[in-house]
Amino acid sequence: MFAAIDAGDVAKTNAIDSDEVDPIFGEIGEQISGAAAASRANSDQHLHDLAVIQARVLFSTPLVFTFGLGLVVFFWRVLVSYQDQVKRAVEREAEAARRNEQRFRALVQNASDLVLICSPDGTVFYQSPATHGPWGYTDDALLDEAFTGLVHPEDTAAARDLWDQTQAVRGATKAVELRCQNAAGAWRHAELILSNLLDEPAVNGLIATVHDIQDRKIFEQQLTQQAFYDGLTGLPNRALLCDRIKQALVRTGRRNTNVGLLFLDLDKFKIINDSLGHQTGDELLIEVATRLKASVRAEDTVGRLGGDEFVVLLENIADDVSVLPVVEAIKKQFGRSFLLEGREIAVTASIGIAFGDASRDQADSLLRNADLAMYRAKAAGKGRHVIFDSSMQVDTLARLELENDLRAAIDGGQLRVHYQPIVPLKSERVTEVEALVRWQHPTQGMISPLDFIPLAEETGLIIPLGLWVLKEACRQAAIWHAQFPIDPPVVISVNLSPRQFQMPDLAEEVERTLQEAGLPARYLKLEITEGTIMLDVEATISTLSRLKAIGIKLAVDDFGTGYSSLAYLKRLPLDVLKIDRSFIKGIAENAEDKAIVQAILLLAKSLNLEVTAEGIENAEQAAMLNSWQCERGQGYYFARPMEADKATALLGRLGLSPLPRVA
C-alpha cells in the first residue's frame, strides 16, 4: 500500500486499504485527523494568543518605557537631593566645628582657670590666655617657666609631690589645694589639677589647670568661724576651747607641767543686761573679752562659753602660785570702770581656778571643777578668786538640793519674816522695824540667810521671794497700826535685792502691794545697797524718783562699802544712810573706823539725810554714836530679830516706853 502511495496509484491504494488493511486504522486515522484538527485549532489559538500578547506588548511597551524613564528620573532626583543633603550636612558639620572651635577659643580666653601644658621637667610650653579673672597673666607670661614658680613657697613641697605622683602613671589625674600667685603678685587659694597626657600625640605633656577657690576658702573660713568662735567677741567658743584643753592636757604629759583653767563669771551681769538693754550688755562683753586678752600671755587662750562666762586656759603651769600674776592682772583690768553709753559702770568678776594634767583630768572635768570654784568665789562675796578642791563637789550637790528645796519653800509656806527693832538713840523706843526673811526648812531646821539669799540671787528666785517678803511685811505693819495706837505709827523697813530693784514695774508692784495691805506709803521704807546704786546711777535715780513720788521713804543699806561717788549721791532722792556694821564694830578701839563713821555722819548732815547705825552690840557704841548726833541705831544691843508674834507682844508692852536691854 505504501508503494502504491509512493507510485501515486490512488485506486490501488484504496483497494488495498479497503480489502487488506485492518479496520482499526480507520479509527486511528480518524483519531489522527481529529488530533491534527485539534492541533491546528490549538496552533491557531496559540497564534491568536500570541497575536494578542504582541498587541498588548506593543501597547504596554511605551507605558513601561515611560514608567522606567520616570523611575530613572525619580532616582536621579533622589540622588541629587541626597548629594545636596550630604553637602549641606558636611557644610553644617564644618560650620559647627568652626563654631565649636570659636567657642573653645572664647572659653579658653575668657575662662577664670589658668591652663598650662608642661614638659616632663615641669617647664611650661603652652599657656591659655588668662588676662581676665583672678589670674590676669598675658598670653606668654609663663612660657618657658617652671610651673612651680606660681606656687607659694610653703606649698611647693605639696605641688612637687603631686607632680611626681601624676607623672609616674600615664593617663592619671590628681588634684591638690594650695596657694598660687596672680599677675598682680597676690596669693590666692587655688585647686591645682594635674593630668598626665604624655601619650596623647596632640598634647605630649602634663596639663596643669589652676582653678581659683578663694571665695570658697573664705566661705569655709566663715563657717569655721561660726562653728568654733563666738560670734560676739571673736573668742574661741566651747567646742574649740574644749579641744584646746584636751590638747593642752596631752602636752602636760610630755612637758611634766600642769594646765591652769580660770573660769570667770561677771557679777550682776543680768542686772546690767536687763536695766541697760542687751546691746549695752553686748558692748560690756566685748570690752571684757578685750581686757582679758590683754591680761594673759600670747600662748594662753581666752574663750567664751556663753552669756557672761569666760574661760582662760593657761599652759606650762608649774604650781598654784604661777597663776596668781594672771589673776591679779585680770582683777586690775576689772578695777577700772567700764564706759557704757557714756556711763561709768563698775563691774566685778568671780573667778574659779582649777589645775589638771593628762594623768588624772579630762577637759569636761577640768571645766566643771573651775566652774564649782567660781560659784564658791561668788558665794564668798563676789569679785574674788577661789581655787578648786575636791570638797566642793560634795558642796555642789548639797547646793543643788538646797536650790530645789528653796523653790518649794517659796510656795510651801516655809518662809518666815522676822522683825528687828530700829530705835532713836535718844529715846530708845521702837519707831521702826526691819523685815528680815528666814527659812524654816522641814528637815534641816532654820537655814541662815547667808546660805540661801546668795543662792536666790543667782537663780532668780530672789524675785518671788522678795515680793513675798514685801507683801508679808506690809500686811503685818497694817495689822500693827490697827492694834497699837502708837504715835507716830511704826515704820516697816524692807530690803530690795539688786534684781528686784531692776524690775521695770517695781514702782507699780510696790504701790499695788501697799493698796492691798491698806498701808500708807509713808510708813514703808525700802533699803537698797550702795553697790546696787552704782551699777547704773542714772537708772537708779529714775527708779528712786518713781518710788519717792509714791511717798515711800528710801534708805541706802551698808553705806561705806560700795565706793559711791559723792557727786552721784547728792542727786539721789534718799532719806536715810545706814552705816555698815563693819565700821560700827571698831569705833571704840579703831581710830580709822571712828573717823569713817564721823565722816559719814558729817556727810549725811550736809545732804540733809538721817543716819541709822547697824550692828550696835554694846552701850559704849550706842553712847558714842548718840554723842555724834546719829539719829537711830539697830543691833543686838537693842534686840535680835524676832518672829511676828514676839514683835507684836513687844510693841504691845512698850507703847511709848524705851526698849528693854537684851540680856
Automatic annotation (TrEMBL):
GO terms for biological process: cellular response to nitric oxide. One of its GO terms (molecular function) is cyclic-guanylate-specific phosphodiesterase activity. InterPro entries: Biofilm_reg_signaling, EAL_dom, EAL_sf, GGDEF_dom, Nucleotide_cyclase, PAS, PAS-like_dom_sf, PAS_4. SMART domains: EAL, GGDEF, PAS. The chain crosses the membrane at residues 57-79. It comes from the Bacteria. The keyword Membrane applies. The keyword Transmembrane helix applies. It catalyses: 3',3'-c-di-GMP + H2O = 5'-phosphoguanylyl(3'->5')guanosine + H(+). Residues 100-172 form the PAS domain. Residues 257-390 form the GGDEF domain. Residues 399-655 form the EAL domain. Keywords: Membrane, Transmembrane, Transmembrane helix. PROSITE patterns: EAL (PS50883), GGDEF (PS50887), PAS (PS50112). This is EAL domain-containing protein. It comes from Lichenifustis flavocetrariae.
